[in-house]
Amino acid sequence: MIVGAGAIGSWLAAVLARGGADVSIVARGVTSDALQADGLTLLEDDQHANWRLPVSQDAAALPRPDLVLFSVKTHAFADAVRTAQPALAHGPAIMTAMNGLPWWFLDRPGPLNGTRLESIDPGGSIAAQCAAGAAIGAVVHASTVTERPATVRAVKVDRLIVGDAASQTSALTQAFSKCIVAGGVACPVTPDIRQEIWAKLAGNSNMNPLSALTRLSATPLLDDRNLLDLVRNMMTEFEAIGRCLGFQNQMPAQDRIAVTRRLGDFRTSMLADADAGRRLEIEGLLGCVVEIADRLGEPAPVSRIVHALTSGLDLSARFGQR
After folding, report:
1. pLDDT by residue (tens digit) across 259-279?
2. CATH number for domain 2-191, candidates 3.40.50.10470, 3.40.50.2300, 3.40.50.300, 3.40.50.720
3. For 149, which DSSP code?
4. What is the pLDDT of residue 13?
5. Which residues are catalytic?
6. Which residues, in sequence order, are bridge partners of residue 41?
7. CATH topology classification for 195-320
8. If 270 and its partner were Cys, which of 82, 202, 212, 238 is the partner (CB 3.0–4.6 Å)?
9. What is the C-alpha to C-alpha distance for residues 225 and 250, in angstroms, rounded to an integer?
10. In what side-by-side order are the strands of the sheet with 40-44?
11. What pTM was estimated for this model as a whole?
């Protein structure tokens, strides 16, 4: 069951269906209407394919799933979990293919073991509602866009990395990976999914908020000396926090900046949200980093300032939606 039929969720639903999985989708509004009327369409270069999948706004109306996959914005996750509660009640595995850190990220030996992050799971409601199912992480390395409701285009696809929150890889995770591979996408299984999640956040936690604040895409942002210094300082602070958590194999800031440059003049998801006046994923992408720094007693002055400024930008978007 896919919860969240945005660009990534719809793409994953299509890939899984193409790989032979039985897929259903929880969707709302015009997306639900379009999926029911026209099916799910995946565009790849000049090719297109369409699937008629079970779709409903009510999770209880869909087939009972072995796996519930959430692909929503971090600030919408708690509501998505409540929506999916009828499907979660029997204890299926739960996968997150989202930005930021999952609620179970710190459930591991080492500093802050078992700590609940308010920025990720306010009040602990997500952990409580997901307690019955085994947790699986997914890190998406793909660019997809929704061209219209129920129609998604794969712009650039690299791979999907999956792994269990527990120390042992489950048979379900292996089966999921095989379906993704059968659907035409590389899907390695890792015994340390937290390392992959942290590595992706290393870029998202700085480029996303800075691009939203400046309204700049990647190239002009990195070409400005002062802004480049901010990126480098935030990455360096992130590395220090990661070392405190036990992540020793981290890419140095200079190398990560070089990798970011090679991706071209891309627009971050937070920049797109800011331009559209939508809510920002600031707590999920940077607030969690600042909260971890607070709990570790680790100074992160640049990250704190950028977090405060982007939180203000997010607040203005919420005021504008009233």
Report:
1. 999 999 999 999 999 999 999
2. 3.40.50.720
3. T
4. 98
5. 200
6. 50, 151
7. N-(1-d-carboxylethyl)-l-norvaline Dehydrogenase; domain 2 (1.10.1040)
8. 212
9. 24
10. 47-51, 40-44, 151-164, 135-148, 93-96, 67-70, 2-3, 25-26, 55-56
11. 0.95
